[in-house]
Amino acid sequence: MTRIRWYTTVVGACLLFQGYQLCVSVLGDLTRALRDGPAFVTDPGPPINFERSAFRTLKPIAALIPPQSRVLVVTAYPNPTIPWDYYFAGRRIVFLQRVVRASGKVLAPALRQSWFAWCDYLERHHRAWTPERQAEELKKADYLVEFCPGLPLPERGLELIATREHTRLFRIHHKELK
Amino acid sequence: MVVWLAVLWVYATQFVAGVVVVRALDFDGSPSARVARALVLGPMAVAVQCVVYSLVAVPWNLALVLVPWWLAGVAIVTRRGIRWSPQPRSHAERALFAGIGIVFALSVWFGLSLPMIAGDAVANFAVFGKLLAVHGGLSADVLQSVKMPGHPEYPPLIAINEALVFRAAAPNGETAIRLFFSFAWLAFAFLTFEAFRELERTLAVLLTALVVATPLLWEFGHNGYADLRLTASGLLLLLECRRWLSRHDRRAALGVALAAAACALTKNEGMMLAGAALAFLLVTGFRSRSLIAAAPAALVMVVLGGLWPAWKLTHGIAEPFLAGAAEQGVDIGRVPRIVGFFLADMFRSQAHGSLSWGVLWPLGGVAIVVCGVLRDRRVWPYVIGFAAHLGVYTAAFVVTPHPLEWHLATAAPRLLLHTLPWLIFVLVCGQRALADRDRAFDEQVDVGLAGPPVDDGRT
C-alpha cells in the first residue's frame, strides 16, 4: 500500500483552500446569473477602469434627464460593457454611432447600442452616416448626449475618452438649446 | 433549435479538425491527452484553413469550411482506425475527471446564460469575429474600420473560430461564442493532468485539481479573452518540447511545430513563444544531430506562424504598440514598479473575486526553495524559462506608450496567466525532488533493517 507522504497532505490542504475559493467564485457567478437574469448584464457591479469612469460620468448626466424622455446618444463607441440601460433607466435611448476613418470619412452608423448591432446594421444597410441622418434623429429626440464632442474621434481609444476630464467629454444639450 | 444544432456542428467540426491533426501525427498518449490536443490544434487548423481560403478568394461558406474536415475525419479513420485505448483509472483519477466535467458543465451553462460583455473580449475578438462573419472572409478594409476600439493586428485564431459560430448562430452569436472558451478551459485541465502524470498518482490528481480549481481560470473559461487558450497552447508547446527532447523524431518535432503555430495564431505574445520554440527546435536538433527531423517541422512552424504577419504586412495593417513604444522610449526606472506589480498579483486572493490565484504562486515559490535545498537542478530550466518569459513582458511595460498603471492593471494578470505552464513544471520538479529524497531515504532504511548479508552456509 502506498504511504501518504507529508507533502501529499500539504498539497491536499492547499487544494481544500483552492477548492473553497473556486466554489465561492462559481456559486457567486451562478447565483447572480440565476437571480438577476438578463439584468446581470447591466448591473454595474464593482466598476473597473473605464466602467468606473462611465459610472462617475453617466450617472450625473442621466440624473439631469427626466424619465420617459427620448435621448439621442451620439458616440463613437457605444460599448456594451457600459451599462447604458442601467443609468438611463426609464428613458428611451437612441444611439447614433459615428465610426470615422482616419481620413475623417465617416464610415457607418448604428442605431442600437452595441458593436454587434453595428455589425448587423452594416450587414443590412451598409450606408454612410450623414449629418442629415443625425438631424433626422435629433428632430425626434428630447435630449442629445454627445459623447466626446470636439475630440478627433478616430484615433482615440476608449481609455483616452474615459480618463480625460469627464465634464468636457460629455456634453448634454436640451432640445431647446439647439 | 436548428440554430443551436448548427452551432454544435461548428464546435464539433473544430474538434474533428483537431482529431484529424492528432491522428495524422499518430500521437500515442492517453485519451484525455489526445482530446486536449484536438481541442487546441483543431481551432488552429480551422484558422489556417480560413486564412488560406481568403488568400485564394474562397468565401467562408459554412459547408465549404466544415465539410472538408468531416471528409478528412472519415478518410483518416477508415485508413488508420480509431485509437482510443482507455487506461485503467484509479478512484482518485475518476473523481478528478468527474470534477473537471462538473466545472466544465457549469462553465458552459454560465457562459450560455449571458452574451459576451467584457470589454476587450468584445472589442478585440468578438467584434472582429462578427465582422469576418458578415464579410465572409478576411478583409483589411473591414478590420481597419474598427481599429479605434479594437486591434485588427491581433492574430486571428479566436476571431475566425468565433466568425464561424456567428455564421451558424445568427442572432444568438454573442452568447454562442462563449462555449469556445469553456473548451479552452477543458483542454487546459487535461493538459495539466498530463503534465503532472509523471508524479505518483494521488499526488498528480491532487496537483491537477489544485491548479484547475484556481478561480482565475474559471473566470477566463468563459469571459471571452484569448489568454487561457494561449496558456493551454503554451502548456501543450512545453509538453511537446519535452517529448521532442525524449525522442528526436519527425513526429515529435511536428508536434512542437503545430503547438507553436497554435500559440502564434492566438495572440501576439504567442508569436514570441513560437519564436523561442523555433530556436529551441533548431538548437537541440543541431546538438543531438537530429536536424533532419527538426528542419521540416521548423519549416512548418515558419509557414504557419508566419501566415498572419505576412498577411498583415501585405495588407498594410500596422502594429500600433511598436510604433508607440518607439516614440515612448525606454524608461528603466519603471522596472521596480512592474516587478512589484507582478509579485503583488501573484499573491492576490479575493474572497469573492474571480481574479484570484489562491495558493498557486506561493506553492511554486516553495517548490523552488525545496529544489534549492535538495540541490535538485532539474527545476532551473523552468525557472529560467519563467524569468525570461516574464522578463519580456517587463520589457514591454518598460516601453509601453500607455499610462503604466492602467496598462499594468489591465494586462498583468493575463500576462501572468501565460506563464502558468512554467509554474506547473516547477511544481512537478519540486514534488519529484521530495519524492526522490524519500525514496532514497526509504532504501537506506530498508538496507539498515535488513542488516548485513548473512552467510548461512548454503552458498
Major β-sheet annotation of chain A: 4 strands, mixed
Summarize model confidence as the mean pLDDT of chain A: 56
The first-to-last residue Cα distance of chain B is 81 Å
Largest interface: A-B, 49 and 55 residues
Quick structural summary:
The complex is a heterodimer of chains A (178) and B (459). By secondary structure, chain A is of the alpha/beta class.
Chain-wise SSE layout:
The complex is a heterodimer of chains A (178) and B (459).
Chain A: H1 6-36, H2 39-42, H3 49-63, E1 70-75, H4 84-87, E2 92-97, E3 99-100, E4 106-108, H5 115-124, H6 131-140, E5 143-147, H7 158-163, H8 166-169, E6 170-174
Parallel strand pairs in A: 1-2, 1-5
Antiparallel strand pairs in A: 3-4, 5-6
Chain B: H1 2-25, H2 31-55, H3 62-80, H4 91-112, H5 119-135, H6 140-144, H7 157-169, H8 173-176, H9 179-196, H10 201-212, H11 215-220, H12 227-246, H13 250-266, H14 268-287, H15 291-314, H16 320-328, H17 335-346, H18 360-373, H19 380-398, H20 404-418, H21 420-450
What does the model show?
The complex is a heterodimer of chains A (178) and B (459). By secondary structure, chain A is of the alpha/beta class. Chain A folds into two domains: 6-37; 49-177. Chain A is 47% helix and 15% strand. In chain A, helix 4 (84-87) links the parallel strand 1 and strand 2. Chain A is rod-shaped. Chain B is mainly alpha-helical and 459 residues long. Chain B folds into two domains: 2-313, no CATH class; 319-446, no CATH class. In chain B, helix 2 packs across helix 9 (179-196) and helix 17 (335-346) crosses helix 20 (404-418). Chains A and B meet through helix 1, helix 3, helix 5 and helix 7 of A and helix 4, helix 5, helix 10, helix 11 and helix 20 of B.
Note the main attributes of this structure.
heterodimer, A: 178 residues, alpha/beta, two-stranded antiparallel sheet, 8 helices, 6 strands, B: 459 residues, mainly alpha, 21 helices, 75% helix, 0% strand
